[in-house]
Write a structure and sequence with these properties.
Layout lengths: L6 H17 L5 H22 L5 E3 L4 E3 L1 H21 L10 H20 L3 H13 L12 H32 L4 H4 L10 H17 L8 H8 L2 H21 L9 H21 L5 H22 L2 H28 L14 H4 L1 H15 L5 H13 L5 H27 L16 H20 L2 H7 L2
Antiparallel strand pairs: 1-2
Helix pairs in contact: 1-2, 1-4, 2-3, 3-4, 3-10, 3-13, 4-5, 4-10, 5-6, 5-10, 6-8, 6-9, 8-10, 9-10, 9-12, 10-12, 10-13, 11-12, 11-17, 12-13, 12-16, 12-17, 13-15, 13-16, 13-18, 15-17, 15-18, 16-18
Length: 469
């Protein structure tokens, strides 16, 4: 047992313990949170960065620490840090609930870190449920909002169904293959002709992961939950559960060889997910709901690298998941700063943003352009790596569909930029310093995210080399 292999998980657990202790103490807990939680979350990113070179197997070889797991833990830590600094002043959360709110969020992030290293099916299931069930209480924490209660019910109900289906699939895999160790499962047969029960079980087990990814046809919850949850909560749900799901899916890539039934099914569903998500987003007026359908499309893009089944595909998917964290948080950063009272923004609410706050308008433009996949952003390089990995792997048709969907996405992403830059709303005042944030903090945080998006678009090898074997 080498503790240095699990320093990121241990540090995140310390944050959970600190929030738990503080939640049972008396006093003005909101002020105390602002004093230490952002610093602790930032330090967790540094701890995760320091652990990038660690390798080893723990807990009876059910917990694998390698370059892939450590990279995803760093991504989870970064997402949690961004969520903390973005949401510590959210307007619709009552002060007495702040500790509990961040406690469940930190617990979910800890579960996602565990999920990044688990290589045994029942451990994957338990880590997935820890990460999922911790999110359910966060959605209804929106003061006097019926839509938040409705979104929470849908999220819990569909999440419970996905959990049951995944557990049922686990039983089929165990009955057919007689092991739950992924390192052994990769050497067994996964064709329908040799082991139909195993293929059926794997399909059902992956359904639980695809639910977290908002992947068609397990996507129904995403637009409603994004719309009903608070802006800061939606930012977390939009990003980090996807990172955990992708980390586990990449563990299954040795099983997903081109031509196999399960691989073909995932490829077809990836094409449908991209197309459906983009077409549905075209008609949305609510910004968060638009990003909800966008998330469905991006789940399809991420699956392109998974079905490629090569080291290049694995590295491309991991890189795009990291880029997706930055791109989505950049958009939500602007949404949270513009929504003074925490309400949902319509496209019309972005009118005149370039005049009210040129810096935030630039951040929104960079985030939207990156989500489309235009240079010189990390989104462009991520899509380029994904499509290159899948080309000549039997999925050229999927690459063509993905490229066509980039063109479709241009319309609604650049519509965000159009409202921010070409329409004016003179009656609104400056909002970037609202909710207790200084204008400098709002601008500097957004420009930091935009800068990272551009940096990793120009120099993607800074991350991509870490992911290639």
């Amino acid at each position: 047992m080498t503790l240095q292999l699990i320093f990121p998980e241990l540090f995140q657990l310390l944050i959970v313990a600190g929030l738990f202790l503080q939640s049972v103490l008396q006093g003005d807990r909101a002020v105390q949170l602002k004093k230490w939680l952002p610093w602790a979350a930032g330090l967790s990113v540094l701890v995760a960065l320091a652990s990038l070179g660690q390798n080893g197997l723990l807990f009876g070889q059910t917990y694998q620490v390698d370059r892939l797991s450590q990279f995803f833990k760093m991504t989870v830590s970064l997402g949690f840090f961004l969520t903390v600094i973005n949401g510590v002043e959210q307007p619709l959360l009552e002060k007495e609930k702040q500790c509990d709110y961040f406690l469940f969020m930190a617990l979910s992030a800890w579960g996602l870190m565990l999920l990044c290293s688990t290589v045994e099916l029942i451990s994957i299931y338990l880590a997935l449920e820890l990460a999922s069930f911790s999110l359910f209480p966060l959605v209804p924490l929106r003061t006097k909002s019926l839509s938040a209660a409705e979104a929470a019910i849908k999220y819990m109900f569909i999440g419970g169904v996905a959990t049951a289906v995944g557990l049922f699939g686990f039983s089929y895999i165990l009955a057919a293959q007689h092991t739950t160790d992924l390192n052994q499962l990769v050497y067994l047969s996964w064709s329908w002709s040799h082991s139909p029960m195993a293929v059926l079980g794997l399909t059902l087990f992956l359904s639980g992961l695809l639910f977290k990814l908002a992947f068609f046809p397990f996507h129904f919850w995403a637009p409603d939950v994004y719309e009903g949850a608070g802006n800061e909560t939606a930012a977390y749900i939009a990003v980090l559960p996807k990172v955990g799901a992708v980390a586990v899916l990449l563990r299954f890539t040795p099983l997903l060889k081109p031509g196999m039934e399960i691989t073909t099914i995932l490829a077809v569903l990836a094409a449908v997910s991209m197309t459906y998500g983009n077409l549905a987003a075209l008609v949305q007026k609510d910004v968060k709901r638009l990003l909800g359908y966008s998330a469905i499309a991006h789940a399809g893009y991420l699956m392109v690298g998974v079905v490629a089944g090569t080291p290049m595909g694995v590295a491309a998917t991991a890189f795009y998941a990291f880029a997706y964290v930055l791109m989505t948080f950049a958009c939500f950063w602007v949404i949270c700063r513009e929504s003074v009272d925490g309400r949902n923004l319509k496209l019309e609410d972005l009118s005149g943003l370039s005049r009210r706050s040129p810096g935030l308008a630039l951040v929104l433009a960079v985030g939207a352009v990156a989500l489309v996949g235009l240079p010189p952003t990390a989104g462009f390089m991520g899509k380029f790596f994904l499509l290159s990995a899948a080309w000549n792997r039997g999925f050229n048709w999927l690459v063509v569909i993905a490229a066509a969907n980039v063109a479709i996405a241009l319309f609604y992403y650049l519509n965000l930029v159009r409202y921010a830059y070409t329409t004016q709303s003179p009656e609104r005042g400056v909002t970037s310093g609202a909710k207790g944030y200084s204008p400098f903090f709002s601008l500097s945080g957004g420009l930091f995210l935009a800068g990272l998006i551009i940096l990793f678009g120009i120099l993607p090898e800074l991350v991509f080399k870490l992911l290639m074997p």
